[in-house]
Write a structure and sequence with these properties.
Layout (H helix, E strand, L loop, with lengths): L4 H4 L4 H12 L3 H23 L1 H10 L2 H50 L2 H6 L2 H43 L1 H48 L1 H6 L3 H53 L5 H42 L10 E6 L5 E3 L8 E7 L18 E3 L4 E2 L4 E8 L8 E8 L4 E6 L5 H8 L7 E6 L2 E2 L5 H6 L1 E4 L8 E2 H6 L7 H10 L3 H6 L7 E2 L8 H15 L3 E5 L7 H15 L3 E5 L11 E6 L2 E6 L1 H7 L2 H6 L7
Parallel strand pairs: 8-15, 8-16, 11-14, 14-15
Antiparallel strand pairs: 1-2, 1-3, 3-4, 3-5, 6-7, 6-9, 9-10, 12-13, 16-17
Helix pairs in contact: 2-11, 3-5, 3-7, 4-5, 4-11, 5-7, 5-11, 7-8, 7-11, 8-10, 8-11, 10-11, 15-17
């Protein structure tokens, strides 16, 4: 869903700035060094400019020895400033990258915790814009702002003090001119702030549109929609151009106005200062130093105006980043986890990556008694599970389940369903009947609005989501392969799987024969989400990925829809081996794939209208019979 300008506008700049400062604290040592070096650089500039006064006066006095010492001292001061500037610029790069590294890590970690509903309503391009455009604006602001703000602040304060020291009368004129500059900067910043937010929102919208059109090029070309897509791109590009132009119109006017006022100030001070020098109210050296300071007085203000542009843009981007980080993560209140049963009957927490065992509730040692009223021996991690584990069998039941993706628009209505361990349950029905929704609820991609789903007699809401999903194997109609080799993609189902286990899983999925025919076999790289493989081959790899995980429950969402009939016949034996002894839920595209199911559920408008075996349903001459005889469409 595209963002509007109102959605992207920073709601609380002060809060955003504080959060950004908290991230800068992660690189506090580097930033402290930068602050010291920036301070030295600023002081060197002030001292070097002030030295114009004694040098000019010494030159007028004709003291060559004193003049030489003053020149050498001034040269040393400027050399120190140059080295300090070089040092802080190099360190600042590393500090800024440390900050954005932490922001990216936290953002990605949080994105991983968001519920699936967030990705349903947020485009991939918008999410990618967080990691590219928004993070880049923050990095650019840190590189250009932190040290320069310290330097500009010291120069502004130091210049003002030294101007008073050199000639307080002329300084009154300078302060009036500087006040005019500050007033205009505030006026311009206020108006440019909201347009920088619009610019970031428009950029995210444009990125999302480009990502969608690029990934859907086959569909675009099939339907000859290039011209319409170009029009859509032009509209979004024009919005970005307008927002950027308006924001930069105000921002770019700050420097010319500041320079113009600065030159006017310099001219007035030069004339008045000359009159004061003629009248003996100012020495020539002080006037010369003062005029240099006046030229430099506008420099810190110019820097602040430019830094203001960077900061406004960065805060708009940071606001979007923190808004994404503040989105509610997926709630997991489950305390029942997968466990292993020891020989003495005690149940221990199951380490990640190990084979599946039983269900048990985590009880911290010393926190109380176990279910049997006795505490067990200490685990290495201080965690023990209760006696009396619940066997992991794969018994799945839905009791009067109600659910809707949108409030007020139910998809499932009072649905009752049971699957005994090892049964193969098939779902058929028209589009929107609720077939995929049932599987999404079993694995808790979404939670039910009403009713209960139990897994081995346990409410799935009481099971930790990670453990629930570890016990489920899912093959989707739309396969997704990752960058890496074919072996890596199969091993994604079980990261510690050996090469032998990977090959065995491929054999079970009937993928081994085509993989071995590839030039590099299991080491063949997968590119562009499997673009170098056929759709059927990608599906077979996805099936092998589930096979290597060896879960007790399988969910096959039209898993063979992208495989031709001949290939489908070849993998039936492998699928039978994969499903043997496992509870299997199948969403069928072809009736031939559901004939041997233990139970076929015919869904219509969120309800089960028929259930039974293939033969039983045909004998009823109902909805299933109509589907089999082509009187109704099977989706």
């Amino acid at each position: 869903m595209p963002r509007t300008a109102a959605q992207a506008r920073p709601a609380d700049l002060a809060s955003t700035a504080r959060r950004l400062l908290s991230y800068m604290g992660h690189a506090r040592f580097l930033l402290a060094v930068v602050a010291v070096l920036a301070t030295v650089s600023a002081l060197a500039s002030l001292i070097g400019t002030y030295m114009v006064r004694p040098i000019v006066n010494g030159l007028a006095a004709g003291d060559i020895g004193l003049l030489r010492a003053q020149v050498l001292f001034t040269a040393g001061v400027y050399a120190t400033g140059v080295l300090s500037s070089l040092g802080y610029t190099q360190i600042m790069v590393r500090a800024a990258q440390k900050v954005v590294l932490d922001i990216r890590c936290d953002l990605f970690a949080h994105i991983q915790t968001l519920p699936l509903s967030y990705f349903d309503r947020t485009r991939t391009g918008d999410v990618m814009s967080y990691f590219t455009n928004d993070v880049d604006t923050v990095a650019e602001a840190l590189n250009n702002s932190f040290a320069n703000m310290i330097q500009a602040g010291i120069q502004m304060v130091g210049t003002t003090i030294l101007l008073f020291v050199l000639n307080w009368r002329l300084t009154v004129i300078t302060i009036v001119c500087d006040a005019l500059i500050v007033l205009y900067v505030r006026f311009s910043s206020t108006r440019s702030k909201r347009f920088f937010a619009r610019q970031q929102a428009a950029l995210g919208d444009l990125d999302g549109y480009v990502e969608e059109m690029t990934s859907g090029q086959k569909v675009v070309k099939i339907f000859n929609r290039e011209r319409q897509n170009l029009a859509g791109f032009d509209a979004r590009n024009s919005e970005l151009s307008r927002a950027s132009a308006t924001a930069l119109t105000y921002a770019a006017s700050m420097v010319p106005v500041t320079v113009c006022v600065g030159y006017a100030n310099y001219a007035i001070v030069a004339v008045v200062g000359g009159i004061l020098a003629v009248q003996g109210l100012a020495d020539v050296g002080a006037l010369a130093s003062y005029l240099v300071f006046v030229r430099q007085a506008a420099m810190p203000i110019n820097q602040f105006t430019q830094l203001g542009n960077f900061l406004l843009n960065a805060l708009a981007g940071a606001e979007r980043l923190f808004a994404a980080m503040d989105r509610e993560p997926e709630v997991d209140e489950g305390r029942v986890t997968l466990a292993r049963v020891a020989e003495d009957g005690w149940v221990w927490e199951l380490p990640a990556g190990h084979g599946l065992g039983a269900w048990g509730k985590v009880v911290p040692v010393g926190a109380g008694t176990a279910q049997t009223g006795a505490s067990g021996p200490s685990a290495a991690d201080g965690t023990v599970l209760a006696r009396g584990p619940i066997p992991l069998r794969g018994d799945v039941r839905l009791h009067a389940v109600d659910f809707g993706y949108v409030p007020g628009r139910p998809v499932l209505k009072g649905l009752d369903l049971y699957a005994h361990p090892g049964q193969k349950i098939a779902f058929v029905g028209s589009t929107g009947a609720g077939k995929t929704t049932i599987t999404n609820l079993i694995n808790r991609f979404y939670d039910v609005d009403g009713g209960v789903i139990t897994y081995d007699g346990i409410d799935v809401r009481e099971i930790a989501k990670a453990d629930l999903r570890r016990s489920l194997g899912i093959v989707l109609q739309d396969t997704h392969l990752f960058s890496g080799t074919i072996a890596d993609n199969i091993r994604f189902g079980k990261l510690d799987a050996t090469d032998e286990e990977v090959r065995a899983a491929a054999v079970d999925a009937c993928a081994d024969s085509f993989i071995r025919r590839l030039p590099e076999g299991y080491d063949t790289p997968v590119t562009g989400d499997g673009a170098n493989l056929s759709q059927g081959q990608r599906q077979l790899i996805a099936i092998a990925r589930v096979a290597v995980a060896d879960p007790p429950v399988l969910i096959l969402d039209e898993a063979t829809s992208s495989i031709d009939t001949r290939t489908e016949k070849l993998i039936e034996r492998g699928m039978d081996r994969l499903m043997r002894g496992r509870t299997t839920f199948m969403i069928a595209h072809r009736l031939s794939t559901v004939r041997d199911a233990d139970a076929i559920m015919v869904l219509e408008r969120g309800r089960i209208v028929e259930r039974g075996t293939h033969g039983e349903l045909l004998a009823r001459h109902g909805e299933y019979w109509a589907l089999c005889h082509g009187l109704k469409e099977l989706d």
